[in-house]
Amino acid sequence: MLDSTFSIAIGETVVIGTSRLKGDQALIALLTAAGKPTGVARELTRGVGLQYGLMPRRTVRPPKSPADTRAILKKLEGQHPNADTELHYSNPYELLVATILSAQCTDERVNMVTPALFTRYPNAAVLARATTSELEPQIQSTGFFRAKSKSLSGMAHAVVERHRGEIPADMDALTALPGVGRKTANVVLGHALGVPGLPVDRHVLRVSNRIGIAKGDDPVVVERQLGAALPKEKWIVASDTLILHGRRICKPRPLCDTCAVRGDCLYYKKVVAPAASKRPQARAGGKSPRSGDPERAARAGRSGPAERRNK
How far is C-alpha 78 from the chain's CA centre? Predict the structure, then answer.
């Protein structure tokens, strides 16, 4: 970093300014100088700038190369063929409502609630006429129903007032709607509107970092890394595949024996395999009572109260 300049990459172009700023503040200053309102500039630095090709010059690189990432995703797609969102919907409006409801809730539960909701409120205009007190009991089982009812009502009003009742196919416009963050916007863009989107949720964060195809706990950073390694037309299926893998195989306590990319996974090589090698071997003539359970194996050799009393 030079004392009197800052440097930001826009695509392949390096722009040099005269302020002694760095990181997000430098990008905000650059965008503001280019005519963007300060609020818009801040939003762009939080990740919407990816849609414009804006990103900090220095980016964190994941351990795996883009070619490795593509090969790993191909293997995972084979393990989870036809991966898709598990939310039920028939149009962009329904998917947006379902995705808002899915926050801190299972897709299965959301799918139990939405049929009646879509019948009663078939579009944003009808939903906008509902009060939050009317919505709350209908979505209560999804959790955080008061906040979600406000998000649904606010979203519906904004869609009617700003977009004539149609769900916009644009990241900026979607994230400007109440209750709609970048992940939700990417879900709707990629699945229902035909616009490349790469939703990053907790499953994508966990799986991609464990394998080594991404590095970081910021969803925008991980989205950027994966997006740079994959063609745009593969973004949404990559996200769906990683989500399913996180739900079915690479859980917080992973089922590594059934994983199609175990040989490529850094977490397996650095954490799981070494721990497995330290487990007690099976006793002659039978199986060790602690085998197959990593936590119990790790506690092997430590006597419990009853064992100490019998000694």
Answer: 21
39-62 pLDDT tens trace: 444 444 444 344 444 444 456 899
**pLDDT recorded at residue 195:** 97
What is the reported pLDDT for 278? 84
Q: Work out the pLDDT band at 279, boundaries 50, 70, 90.
A: confident
Q: What is the DSSP string of 111-152?
A: HHHHHHHHHH--SHHHHHTS-HHHHHHHHGGGS-HHHHHHHH
Q: Spot the catalytic one: 24, 170, 172, 201.
A: 201
Is 215 designated active site? Answer: no
What domains are defined for the chain?
7-55 (no CATH), 92-192 (1.10.340.30)
Phi, psi at residue 255, to the nearest 5°? Answer: -100, 70
201 part of the active site: yes
Contacts of 55 (CB under 8 A, 6+ apart): 9, 49, 224
Q: Which two tokens stand for residue 285?
A: 């003539």
Mean pLDDT of 99-116: 97
Question: Which among 55, 127, 124, 114 has a CA at the least distance from the CA of 87?
Answer: 114
Q: Is 80 exceeded by the pLDDT of residue 95?
A: yes
Considering 64, 183, 234, 240, which one is annotated as catalytic?
183
Nearest to 87 by CA among 296, 288, 240, 283: 240
Q: What crossing angle do the helices spanning 182-192 and 92-101 adopt, rounded to 10°?
A: 150
Specify the pLDDT at position 26. Answer: 53
